[in-house]
Write a structure and sequence with these properties.
Length: 141
């Protein structure tokens, strides 16, 4: 939840998110902007940020003081013509807000997962809460 204690000037730029396969400066991330009702599925590497999917005016994204239920999956394709790629799925609530195939999945060797809160550019004073975190790791990872 992005809480109303966040300064009004920052609320529009503030996001809630999840990160998967974070490590060595690379990661997949689902960012949700409650005031903008926007969701972004991105890949971040040392080469920069790649936007894999963007959903605007998404009704599943709820506003200030409301719980945005975020879920993200990254699945390695181990056989067939897409072998070596990753299939990514981003959900807010039960709604699929982003789906992508990443040809360069090998660039992300990290194994860390994270819950994030932040703003575009710099912002200080964001107030948020996190509840009911579940992390599932497939075997083999």
């Amino acid at each position: 939840r992005l809480l109303s204690g966040t300064p009004t000037a920052l609320q529009r730029k503030a996001y809630l998110g999840l990160e998967l396969r974070a490590g060595a400066g690379a990661k997949y991330a689902l960012l949700v902007f409650p005031r903008q009702r926007k969701a972004q599925l991105i890949k971040v590497t040392s080469a920069g940020t790649q936007y894999l999917a963007i959903a605007k005016n998404e009704k599943a994204v709820v506003g200030i003081n409301e719980a945005n239920k975020l879920r993200m999956r990254a699945v390695n394709v181990t056989s067939g013509p897409e072998k070596g790629q990753a299939r990514l799925f981003a959900y807010v609530g039960k709604k699929l807000v982003g789906e992508a195939v990443d040809d360069g999945a090998g660039d992300l060797g990290g194994r860390a997962s994270a819950v994030v809160v932040g703003t575009i550019k710099n912002g200080n004073g964001i107030v948020a809460s996190v509840d009911d975190v579940v992390v599932r790791v497939p075997s083999p990872f």
